[in-house]
């Protein structure tokens, strides 16, 4: 079992999506769930406490704009990397996400294997774009 597991904070307003991600992450020997949030409202504060390596963040949620939260997080926790999880993966959305400071965007049209691979790649310092974007 790896000593330094990738710590992941899951942020989504859907309990079902959050539960799916938590189950998948917990099943991986090199990852651990650092915490969960149902909105981006307190993302910077939660990340400062929980110290995730990677934040998996839904793009469309009630409350604080997730992209504004990415900008705040970059100041509060510069070592934490964000992956945006979205049903929108067109070039304009990808550009907005990357301009905000996220390390990648993965499509909700993919599967959990894609999400886990993206978490590993971003934790290793890679930028992740959806296929075809």
Could you explain the architecture of this structure?
The chain has about 130 residues and is α/β, with parallel strands linked by helices. The protein has a single domain (about 5-125), classed as Rossmann fold (3-Layer(aba) Sandwich), CATH 3.40.50. The chain is about 40% helix and about 20% strand. It has five helices and five strands, in the order βαβαβαβαβα. The chain has helices spanning about 15-25, 45-50, 65-75, 90-100, 110-125; strands spanning about 5-10, 30-35, 55-60, 80-85, 105. It has a five-stranded parallel beta sheet, sandwiched between helices. Helix 3 links the parallel strand 3 and strand 4. Helix 2 runs parallel beside helix 3 (about 65-75). The longest helix has 12 residues, at about 15-25. About 40% of the residues are buried. The mean pLDDT is about 95.
């Amino acid at each position: 079992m790896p000593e330094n597991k990738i710590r992941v904070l899951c942020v989504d307003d859907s309990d079902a999506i959050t539960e799916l991600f938590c189950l998948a992450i917990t099943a991986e020997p090199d990852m651990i769930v650092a915490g969960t949030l149902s909105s981006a409202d307190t993302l910077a504060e939660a990340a400062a406490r929980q110290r995730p390596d990677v934040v998996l963040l839904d793009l469309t949620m009630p409350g604080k704009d997730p992209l504004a939260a990415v900008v705040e997080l970059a100041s509060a926790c510069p070592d934490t990397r964000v992956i945006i999880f979205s049903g929108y993966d067109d070039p304009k959305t990808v550009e907005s996400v990357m301009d905000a400071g996220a390390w990648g965007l993965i499509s909700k049209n993919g599967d959990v294997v894609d999400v886990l691979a993206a978490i590993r790649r971003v934790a290793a310092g890679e930028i992740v774009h959806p296929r075809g974007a």
